[in-house]
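REQUEST ID: PR-0412
SUBMITTED BY: lab tech R.K.
PRIORITY: routine
TASK: structure prediction, single protein chain
INPUT:
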Amino acid sequence: MSASVENPPDCLMWQDAFAAKYDGKGKFGKDEWDKLLGHCQAVCDWPAAAFGKELIEAYPNAKVILTGRDVDSWYKCGHSHPFSRGKESMLPSNIRTRSTLHTVYWRVTEPQLRLLSHIDWAASQYYPMLRKFFDTFFEGDFLNRGKDIYLDHYKEIKSLVPPEQLLEYKISQRWGPLCDFLDQDIPYGVPFPRGNDADTFIKRSRARNQKQMLNVGLWLLVYGGAVVVVLFMIGICITDIFRCFKVVHHT
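STATUS: complete
OUTPUT:
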């Protein structure tokens, strides 16, 4: 997810992957995955979650960490809190601040990001890919299908990976099982990272929106100013031409 935001052209390749898997358009195999992810040591989160089977087939020797969570905690009872697409204010504050996935769903239905996708280059790459993820992986109905798809995805990944290459992991377990599985020393004294909680996610998303809005404003100021100057110069030239024409006419 973060890499897609930091490098928007990656979103175009992700869109190709979605088209190949869900629309039957084109091909997205090992060569294409290497172009998209060959420089990475690991991949997580969405949109990669939609391609668990394909990534396991492309990289059969990879270790897989399958993070688990109580599905109700993950979902936070969205059925009892229906809200219209793009209406963040209708999502109760306790849900907004406690559920990361609901903030992600908020992100894909956020009016400001949708608007930016029409006027900002980076958002125009990122938002369609994000929208495609929810429309395909969650079948366009996260509120009603989210829990079942989460459970099915967990079972599928578990069935595809050899036991010796799979770690079923809960964040509450902290460093121990993770470091053992990856053959790394436990970093004693180093706090376990917590960089993607709901509040941080929302603040980061809003800050990115503001930055992109500022970029659009500066772009309009610079290029709009240039257009005004050009039009002004054209006006001067036309005025001079008319003056010369009058002089010649009177002569």
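NOTES: The beta strands are 64-67, 166-169.
REVIEWED BY: pending
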